[in-house]
């Protein structure tokens, strides 16, 4: 019995700090997207907020679709994503309190510099997709119900192309995050659509470059929502609201605008005053 | 559950006699064949009994039945006139053809047996040391048992079986895998134990070994005891045809 | 591929500078996986020993199930643990989701079948050898289990090691239930996944090399232990 007892004591000693980590004093959990995480924005702005309020922000970065589902399950205090129609549905269903615009950036099409589909330099995203589809050049899609994926599907619809029929052919759904999809696209010489922030901070660009940008339809709005404490009583409403208020405040908005990589601004704050 | 073996497997001081060990009408069938066919045999206190017979006659199986390692399909085994029980197992020492060495030192192998027999902790060291000394293994007491030579391992197995002071020692062809020198050492060890008062049952198919050891011979053939005869008569004038043929070195049907 | 050279450089740089973030990540990986393996051993070893020693109806089915569970995809385990620990799930009120404890639970579930199956095999092999000897010594079933576990202890280390290998290298489950939260639930594998998705392949590979080094160290330590403990004699 003695040995087993020792084993149990050792196990308990090992586990105790882990259990404690689950109950740290003041923190909130934010369900967010890979684009904000991978771009490094959170690493830049969160220390400012935590330094001011003492509230630690724990970010779970998944696709927008999964982030919304997690938030609907009550697994998070704040939802910070980029798919306005889905966000509004989430609020309407009672899952969230209210949606606020926080910032935007835009989507870009990236592809190999050789540009086999001859779409480089265009400003019309819909037309570019039509040209691309006709050329048969491969296109890598997130295929993961993320905000970026939702946007991409809307663009195909606007172009009048049923890209799903080409799935497995020139249309390749990676079912992964933005970074993984960029890696896949570079690996197989496919075009893809990315949010600008992830693209700028992406380090495995190879010979890839932005081929289409600047179309107003490629606008990418981020919104923030407090998970509804009426539905999920454990939600840290005060701390979560403090984070939202700070994001929308002049200080938060400046912190977002100040984040740059290689001198390029990644996100443009646009909270309503 | 505990990981340490430091616990008696049964209460100390249980026991009672296992002799006479008796099989009555013991039958074992495998695949439609009777390997033991209604055997009756009794082991009384005293003599060194050798169980002989050709390969496949059922002598090893018979020994295992007597030790309750194999349950008969029909018939009964009794120890000291009653049904065998685990508490008396240490009274019946058993040595396998291939010695099973526990993964610990030589002396710890003996200590383990003493503990399993319920010998009080304070006595174990002394008795284990005595058992090793009797087997001429005191020099190897601290050696891991599994690195000993084949002959040393078998001597240790016998020392381990004898350490608990059993009434009877059953040995299943203990020298089958050993060279002549090691075989001689084993025979000497067994004879010493017998002289010290332990009843011995020794299975072998080696005629020379049987001549050297036996007071009494049980000849097993086709799953039956063909004859049971004092040694001096068995080797000169066996009563069964099968034993006669075996002694003369003829093939027996 | 120029990434290989860069990867070694990065790994070396991280190690030499004892990068505090790296130290934190490695420490958490070890704590989570060691905790998971210890917990899994407390459950898996008795299961393995019981399956090795006991004969009961349905044992064959249990063995098939156990062996199949060894191939359980981590993502499925992660999903099941997520569903259980989610605020909307049955264990939601415990508030364990996105904590190291949740990661440990997921890894433990992955490791229990491995430890149980490998120890079952180890103990059963030894039982084949020991059983009759122990019976003639008058050792009963519980004493037999204790003796088998004790005498097989060095071989059973291999079972724990196999479990640890699976736990420390696994990413699918911990990224779901841990959330890969910086400074809270980020471990080696989820950090590698993150750096890969950022396209920072050199850093990802560097972390991978450190993980490999860790695995080699642990394996070598266990092998050394088995050696010095008298491999020839006791194993």
From TrEMBL, chain A:
Q: Which SUPFAM superfamilies match?
A: Periplasmic binding protein-like II (SSF53850)
Looking at the record, the residues that make up the PBP domain are 29-251
Q: State the signal peptide span.
A: 1-21
Lineage, top-rank taxon, reads Bacteria
Instruction: For this UniProt record, give its keywords in alphabetical order, as a comma-separated list.
Output: Signal
Q: What is this protein called?
A: Tungsten ABC transporter substrate-binding protein
Species source reads Thalassobaculum fulvum
Automatic annotation (TrEMBL), chain B:
One Gene Ontology MF term:
ATP binding
- InterPro entries, A to Z: AAA+_ATPase, ABC_transporter-like_ATP-bd, ABC_transporter-like_CS, P-loop_NTPase
Protein's UniProt keywords contain Aminoacyl-tRNA synthetase: no
Q: Which residues form the ABC transporter domain?
A: 21-247
* Source organism superkingdom: Bacteria
Q: Which Gene3D superfamilies match?
A: P-loop containing nucleotide triphosphate hydrolases
Keyword Chaperone on entry: no
Question: Can you name this protein?
Answer: ABC transporter ATP-binding protein
Q: What is the lineage of its organism?
A: Bacteria, Pseudomonadati, Pseudomonadota, Alphaproteobacteria, Rhodospirillales
Automatic annotation (TrEMBL), chain C:
Residue stretches spanning the membrane: 32-54, 61-85, 97-118, 154-181, 201-225
Q: Which GO terms describe its biological process?
A: transmembrane transport
The answer to keyword Protease applying to this record is no
Membrane topology reported for the UniProt record: Multi-pass membrane protein
Keywords assigned by UniProt? Membrane, Transmembrane, Transmembrane helix
Highest taxon of the source? Bacteria
Q: Which GO terms describe its cellular component?
A: plasma membrane
Q: Which InterPro entries match?
A: ABC_perm_TupB-like, MetI-like, MetI-like_sf
Domain ABC transmembrane type-1, chain residue ranges per copy: 26-222
**Coiled coil stretches, renumbered:** none
Subcellular location(s) of the protein:
Cell membrane
PANTHER family named in the record: PERMEASE COMPONENT OF TUNGSTATE ABC TRANSPORTER
Q: What is this protein called?
A: ABC transporter permease
**In which organism is this protein found?**
Thalassobaculum fulvum
């Amino acid at each position: 019995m003695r040995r087993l007892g020792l084993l149990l004591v050792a196990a308990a000693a090992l586990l105790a700090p882990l259990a404690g980590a689950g109950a740290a004093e003041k923190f909130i959990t934010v369900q967010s997207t890979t684009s904000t995480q991978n771009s490094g924005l959170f690493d830049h702005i969160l220390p400012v907020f935590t330094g001011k309020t003492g509230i630690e922000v724990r970010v779970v970065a998944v696709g927008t679709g999964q982030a919304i589902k997690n938030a609907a399950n009550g697994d998070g205090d704040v939802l910070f994503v980029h798919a306005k129609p889905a966000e509004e549905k989430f609020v309407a269903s009672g899952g969230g309190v209210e949606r606020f615009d926080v910032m935007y950036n835009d989507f870009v099409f990236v592809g190999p510099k050789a540009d086999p589909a001859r779409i480089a330099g265009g400003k019309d995203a819909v037309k570019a997709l039509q040209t691309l589809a006709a050329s048969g050049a491969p296109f890598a899609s997130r295929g993961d119900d993320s905000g970026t994926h939702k946007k991409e599907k809307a663009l195909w619809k606007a172009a009048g192309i049923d890209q799903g029929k080409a799935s497995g052919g020139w249309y390749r759904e990676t079912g992964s995050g933005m970074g993984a999809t960029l890696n896949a696209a570079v690996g197989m010489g496919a075009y893809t659509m990315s949010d600008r922030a992830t693209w700028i901070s992406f380090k495995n660009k190879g010979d890839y470059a932005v081929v289409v940008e600047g179309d107003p339809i490629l606008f990418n709005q981020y919104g923030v929502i407090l998970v509804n404490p009426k539905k999920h009583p454990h939600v840290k409403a005060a701390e979560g609201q403090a984070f939202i208020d700070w994001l929308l405040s002049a200080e938060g908005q400046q912190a977002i605008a100040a984040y740059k990589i290689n001198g390029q601004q990644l996100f443009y704050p646009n909270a309503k005053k | 559950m505990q990981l340490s073996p430091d616990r008696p497997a049964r209460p100390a001081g249980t026991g009672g006699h296992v002799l006479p060990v008796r099989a009555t009408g013991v039958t074992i069938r495998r695949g439609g064949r009777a390997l033991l066919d209604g055997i009756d045999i009794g082991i009384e206190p005293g003599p060194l009994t050798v169980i002989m017979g050709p390969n496949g006659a059922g002598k090893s199986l018979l020994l295992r039945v007597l030790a309750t390692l194999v349950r008969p399909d029909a018939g009964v085994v009794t120890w000291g006139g009653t049904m065998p029980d685990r508490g008396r197992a240490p009274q019946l020492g058993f040595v396998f053809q291939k010695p099973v060495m526990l993964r610990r030192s030589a002396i710890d192998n003996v200590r383990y047996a003493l503990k399993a027999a319920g010998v009080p902790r304070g006595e174990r060291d002394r008795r284990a040391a005595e058992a090793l000394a009797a087997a001429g293994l005191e020099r190897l007491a601290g050696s891991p048992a599994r690195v000993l030579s084949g002959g040393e391992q078998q001597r240790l197995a016998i020392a381990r079986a004898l350490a608990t002071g059993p009434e009877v020692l059953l040995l299943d062809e203990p020298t089958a895998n050993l060279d002549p020198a090691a075989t001689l050492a084993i025979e000497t060890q067994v004879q010493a134990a017998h002289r010290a008062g332990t009843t011995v049952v020794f299975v072998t198919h080696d005629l020379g070994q049987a001549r050297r050891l036996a007071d009494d011979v049980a000849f097993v053939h086709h799953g039956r005891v063909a004859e049971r005869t004092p040694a001096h008569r068995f080797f000169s004038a066996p009563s069964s045809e099968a034993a006669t043929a075996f002694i003369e070195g003829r093939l027996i049907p | 591929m120029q990434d290989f050279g860069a990867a070694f450089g990065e790994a070396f740089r991280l190690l030499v500078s004892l990068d505090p973030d790296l130290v934190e990540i490695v420490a958490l990986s070890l704590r989570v996986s060691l905790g998971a393996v210890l917990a899994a051993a407390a459950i898996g070893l008795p299961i393995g020993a019981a399956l090795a020693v006991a004969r009961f109806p349905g044992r064959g089915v249990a063995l098939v199930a156990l062996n199949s569970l060894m191939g359980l995809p981590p993502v499925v385990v992660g999903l099941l643990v997520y569903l259980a620990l989610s605020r909307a799930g049955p264990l939601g009120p415990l508030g364990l989701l996105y904590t190291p404890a949740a990661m440990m639970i997921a890894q433990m579930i992955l490791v229990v079948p491995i430890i149980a199956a490998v120890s079952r095999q180890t103990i059963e092999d030894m039982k084949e050898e020991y059983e009759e000897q122990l019976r003639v010594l008058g050792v009963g079933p519980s004493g037999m289990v204790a003796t088998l576990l004790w005498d097989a202890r060095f071989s059973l280390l291999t079972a724990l090691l196999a479990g640890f290998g699976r736990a420390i290298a696994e990413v699918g489950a911990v990224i779901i239930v841990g959330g890969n939260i910086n400074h809270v639930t980020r471990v080696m594998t989820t950090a590698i996944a993150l750096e890969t998705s950022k396209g920072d392949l050199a850093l990802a590979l560097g972390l991978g090399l450190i993980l490999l080094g860790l695995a080699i160290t642990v394996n070598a330590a266990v092998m050394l232990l088995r050696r010095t403990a008298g491999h020839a004699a006791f194993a």
